[in-house]
């Protein structure tokens, strides 16, 4: 298997950064294909902790080609800041390629994200306020600015002349300050100069790598339940974090995908608003939040915490065709007495095994749980599956039984080495 897609199978923050970094040791190319700096991917290398937002998690390895593909939305100021911070910490030798078709998050997108949330009041989405939704809206509305425009002053002028009058009207109608064309244009021409060395046709680059049979890792951002099409709409992000979206968002054919890994926390978390059937609003939720350090990488918001919901994971399997699971943060559940896994929902007295489309139905779903025996032994130093306590193995094997997906990777700590490998994904 040389081309592997990693997707979040829940509501994001499943540990995609850690798995990308881990599997990245065998990868030639790492690709981010959707989302932007709403993502927060944590990577721990030795004593150092990195939180990446726009930059792919392969950036630490000078041999890896890191690609920001066409489906992404990129805030160039924040991306430069991220690179500068990495350089300050000694990451100076890297390969980065940015698609000329990726869209640029402009300052007015940030203003609008904040204003929409404010106007929605109690119905706010709880976005990361990074301008993601407004930027994707402009892409759909065909008034976006792309990275290829940013690095070409004449194209930038044309694209901004097309967009800004409309954006300024919208800003004023929201009670926000409009932008001066000249000032914004001149500022972004300068920013564009810094990106010129990175911007190219990344679909062409990926085609060449596919022909060479290189190991390519597509690093997902967000998670299936935040998908614009299949998630808990409208409490979702504005792109599709599914495996099916990768070909469109990276400019590769569907046949290029050999294997899909679903990244799945041993429990469930969600940041922002929206339905969450297995949420624990009690001491146990607080305990898991503290033990798992469940605070947003990007916004520092406390993450909502709940039991593992396999209706969600099975739904992600249906949408993305998950071949392997990477079960993350299993160590956090050590010593938790009241272990449960949700295996179905009850809606209006009937059992269902899928995610209802409407918020009204989903918010009325009651989880159907199975109880599982807990384990007390410290598992953080386990290197081999057989060394896990019987009840931890039972937890893993219950997940395999209910989902029908092999758990090929088990993560028992945030560090690279705290990983149990049951099958080498690139060698399946
Ligand atoms: P991502 O957005 O999917 O990359 O995930 P985040 O980085 O936002 O959140 C995952 C968090 O869990 C990070 O703080 C990781 O360092 C941490 N983490 C990842 N795997 C493990 C694990 O197996 N055990 C523990 N205790 N922490 C982990
Ligand atoms: P990673 O890649 C968790 C959530 C936000 C909000 C909703 C919409 O780290 O898993 P947006 O700013 O995208 O318009 O916000 O989506 N969200 C995430 N939650 N992890 C993420 O990324 C997220 N990216 C967006 O909290 O509920
Ligand atoms: Mg995250």
Mean pLDDT: 97
Helix fraction bin: 25-40%
Distance between the termini: 6 Å
* Major beta sheet, strand line-up: 9-7-5-2-10-1-11-15-19-20
- Give the number of DSSP strands: 20
Question: What does this protein look like?
Answer:
With 428 residues, the chain is α/β, with parallel strands linked by helices. It is 32% helix and 20% strand. It has 13 helices and 20 strands. The strands form five sheets. It has a ten-stranded mixed β-sheet with strand order 9-7-5-2-10-1-11-15-19-20, sandwiched between helices. Helix 3 crosses helix 4 and helix 6 packs across helix 7. The radius of gyration is 21 Å and the shape is globular. The mean pLDDT is 97. Bound molecules: guanosine-5'-diphosphate, 6-O-phosphoryl inosine monophosphate (IMO) and magnesium ion. Magnesium ion binds next to loops.
In short:
The protein is an alpha/beta fold.
Characteristics:
428 residues, alpha/beta, 4-stranded mixed sheet, 13 helices, 32% helix, binds guanosine-5'-diphosphate, binds 6-O-phosphoryl inosine monophosphate, binds magnesium ion
In terms of topology, how is this protein built?
Layout: E1 3-8, H1 16-24, E2 29-32, E3 41-45, E4 48-52, E5 65-68, E6 73-74, H2 76-88, E7 95-99, E8 103-104, H3 107-120, H4 132-140, H5 147-150, H6 153-173, H7 181-195, E9 199-200, H8 202-211, E10 216-219, H9 245-250, E11 259-265, E12 268-270, H10 283-291, E13 304-306, E14 308-309, H11 310-320, E15 324-328, E16 339-347, E17 350-352, H12 359-362, E18 366-372, H13 390-403, E19 407-411, E20 419-421
Parallel strand pairs: 1-10, 1-11, 2-5, 2-10, 5-7, 6-8, 7-9, 11-15, 14-16, 15-19
Antiparallel strand pairs: 3-4, 12-13, 16-17, 16-18, 19-20
Helix pairs in contact: 3-4, 6-7
The protein binds guanosine-5'-diphosphate, 6-O-phosphoryl inosine monophosphate and magnesium ion.
């Amino acid at each position: 298997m040389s081309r592997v897609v990693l997707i979040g199978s829940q509501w994001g923050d499943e540990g995609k950064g850690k798995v990308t970094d881990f599997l990245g040791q065998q990868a030639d190319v790492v690709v981010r294909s959707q989302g932007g700096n709403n993502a927060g991917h944590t990577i721990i290398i030795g004593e150092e902790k990195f939180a990446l937002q726009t930059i792919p998690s392969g950036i630490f390895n000078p041999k890896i080609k890191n690609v920001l593909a066409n489906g992404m939305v990129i805030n160039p100021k924040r991306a430069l800041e991220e690179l500068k911070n990495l350089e300050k910490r000694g990451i100076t030798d890297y390969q980065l390629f940015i698609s000329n078709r990726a869209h640029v998050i402009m300052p007015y997108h940030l203003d609008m994200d904040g204003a929409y949330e404010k106007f929605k009041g109690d119905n706010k989405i709880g976005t990361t306020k990074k301008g993601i939704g407004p930027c994707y809206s402009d892409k759909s509305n065909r008034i976006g600015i792309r990275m290829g425009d940013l690095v070409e002053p004449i194209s930038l002028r044309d694209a901004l002349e097309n967009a800004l009058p409309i954006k300024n009207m919208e800003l004023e109608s929201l009670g926000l300050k409009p932008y001066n064309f000249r000032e914004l244009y001149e500022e972004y021409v300068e920013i564009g100069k810094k990106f010129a060395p990175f911007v190219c046709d990344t679909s062409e680059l990926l085609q060449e790598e596919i022909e060479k049979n290189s190991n390519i890792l597509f690093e997902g951002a967000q998670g299936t339940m935040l998908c614009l099409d299949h998630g808990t709409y409208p409490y979702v992000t504005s792109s599709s974090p599914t495996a099916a979206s990768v070909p469109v968002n990276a400019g590769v054919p569907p046949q290029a995908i050999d294997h899909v890994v679903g990244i799945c926390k041993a429990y469930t978390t969600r940041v922002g608003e929206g339905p969450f059937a297995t949420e624990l609003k009690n001491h146990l939720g607080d305990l898991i939040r503290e033990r798992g350090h469940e605070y947003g990488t990007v916004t520092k918001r406390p993450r909502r915490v709940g039991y593992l919901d396999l209706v969600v994971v099975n739904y992600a399997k249906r949408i993305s065709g998950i071949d392997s699971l990477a079960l993350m943060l299993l160590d956090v559940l050590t010593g938790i007495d009241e272990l449960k896994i949700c295996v179905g929902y009850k809606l209006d007295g009937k059992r269902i095994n899928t995610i209802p489309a409407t918020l009204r139905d989903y918010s009325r779903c009651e989880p159907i749980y199975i109880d599982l025996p807990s384990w007390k032994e410290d598992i953080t130093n386990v290197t081999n599956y057989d060394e896990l306590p019987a009840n931890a193995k039972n937890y893993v094997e219950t997940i395999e039984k209910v989902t029908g997906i092999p758990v090929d990777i088990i993560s028992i700590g945030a560090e690279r080495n705290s990983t149990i490998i049951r099958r080498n994904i690139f060698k399946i």
